[in-house]
Give the backbone structure.
Amino acid sequence: MHLKCRDTEKPYLRSEIHRVEVPDEKVEWTVEWASYKPTVYTDPSTNNKPWADKNIGEATFKWNQIDGKTDRRSHTGQYVIDDYGYPLNPMGRTGLRGRGVLGKWGPNHAADPIVTRIHKGQLQFVAIKRRDNGEWAIPGGMIDPGEAVSETLKREFTEEALEGVTNKDIEEIWKKGSELYRGYVDDPRNTDNAWMETVVVNFHDDGELLECAEFKAGDDAVGVRWINANLPEKLYASHEYFIELLLKHHGISRPKMEYD
Ligand code: RP5
């Protein structure tokens, strides 16, 4: 069940708009809620951007299909279009309608590379600090139109954690990846009609390829560092869950914490 995209405490990113509170039992669209009338918000800064969709009614959209250069298929299966022509978030209500700050109606596809190493006996992954909200995150990003996921994974890591600078040694790391997840992301930008989805792939450096890499935050990142995977750390969107999958993949169990 999505939680971060139902947060009513903070205003929605770059706005003064608050979500309507959606109680757990009313998240699913199949639960009747006649008086549900959340604010409709599409960030004005997305208007007329080449990467953003037009308003519903001003263009035709091929839902659940590849639509020109936009992949409107969801990893979660077929999503529903409501009576007014808007795609409905497959995880249910979020307390906000419209496209928010996202570019696409329906699924917005991203890719997340988890680059890892063993350091002093600990599994570590590379994290970046996001410019938009200051949270630590996996250095993922949006898939460009027509781009292969494998390219996005490489490109986003290079832009955000290496400030665009790569070399032959670092390139080696992209040769072996293990997919950990493919699906919906509980991203704070999600709305009832636009949401994030991702493919998460682990690239493990078992040959010290990254030992001499010069990590430097670039593009949408303002910080970069190695984080011990088995220590609890607050991360952006569903990224804590992706780290749990990473630990499982490496056969590591996280020590039980007081709050568990
Ligand atoms: C998250 O947003 C994904 O998991 C990915 O890490 C990220 C992509 O968005 P940007 O970083 O490009 O804003 O939902």
About this structure: The mean pLDDT is 94. The longest strand covers residues 106-119. Residues 120 and 228 are 10 Å apart (CA to CA). Residues 110, 112, 137-138, 140-142, 185, 187, 196, 198, 220, 237 surround 5-O-phosphono-beta-D-ribofuranose (CB under 6 Å).
